[in-house]
Sequence to fold (318 residues):
Amino acid sequence: MSVLVFADSSEGKFKKTALEVVSYGKKVAEQLGTNVVALTINASDSSELYTYGAEKVVSVTNDAFNTFNAKQYAAVITEVAKAEKATVVVVDSSIDGLYVAPIIAVNLEAGCVSNVVDVPSSTSPFTLKRKTFSNKAFSNTVISTEHKVIGVAKNSYGVHENVVAGNTETFETTIVAPGVKSEKIERVTGKVTIADADIVVSAGRGLKGPENWGMIEELSEVLGAATACSKPVSDLGWRPHSEHVGQTGKPVAANLYIAIGISGAIQHLAGINASKVKVVINTDPEAPFFKAADYGIVGDAFEVVPKLIEKLKAFKAS
Ligand SMILES: Cc1cc2nc3c(=O)[nH]c(=O)nc-3n(C[C@H](O)[C@H](O)[C@H](O)COP(=O)(O)OP(=O)(O)OC[C@H]3O[C@@H](n4cnc5c(N)ncnc54)[C@H](O)[C@@H]3O)c2cc1C
Fold:
């Protein structure tokens, strides 16, 4: 018996969620009195995972996995889970993770719970707390099957150092490249993506037009944040669709979400509920977003944002 964790990477480097799922898997393994094994796919150096408790790393290097394909990733995770006799498989709950988890569950005839926010409150019965109803509520779910697949919600458990003397083994998979070729056409270089960002600066129709996004990009740069927007903004072509956040856009689980000139419609809030601290800047004190905000500034974005940039720059320089 072991706990297998899939440590996802991008261009050879581990995502922050990878370190979080390894930390999580280590804790679950402790609860079960077993060891944690991390699986890496095309990561250049796996040793970083020892810092977060991975006693063993199984490394798969294969060009067939250069582009994400849910069935193939699930197949190799299943293959390693069987080889390692893993009864618990842990992945993240990113969009890729949400595709992969149920396929692994079918392969292993396992119960599957995604958007999990904590380690099991009990291992017998195996009980997990998860977010539900667009992150507005929690539910406690019991998995009764022998094998279990857990999808951990980003930023819910956190990254915890737990240094061990791990070792890495290579694994030769039997999986080959799929007949259907998928290509990634959206590539962001040198910028933080919404999915990976700790801080997201988002703006809405209150900004009046695309020509006013300079200050939003400047604020993002000062904070090392990703930029995002509301749906009408991308529908109007002011910003690319890849930045659209919400029920029909991308979900954001950042530590800090700054919403500027966004009303806070329910469809927008559905995408940002999982963010920890929400700051709202809006001229209308009755804007619904203030009800969801941790901090609110009633004011004109064209006055508030430049002042914020000035103060942040001065703070960083001091
Ligand atoms: C099926 C469906 C799915 C949808 N999915 C999504 C989704 O995924 N994401 C999403 O965002 N929307 C979604 N929508 C649209 C959603 O209902 C809202 O229409 C949208 O979120 C509003 O965008 P907004 O807040 O930018 O614009 P508005 O509603 O026009 O609000 C602009 C806000 O800016 C404020 N403002 C104006 N001037 C300033 C200023 N100078 N400084 C500061 N504040 C100012 C105003 O007070 C106002 O609150 C969906 C709608 C439907 C029907």
Q: What stands out?
A: The longest strand covers residues 35-41. The two ends are 53 Å apart (CA to CA).
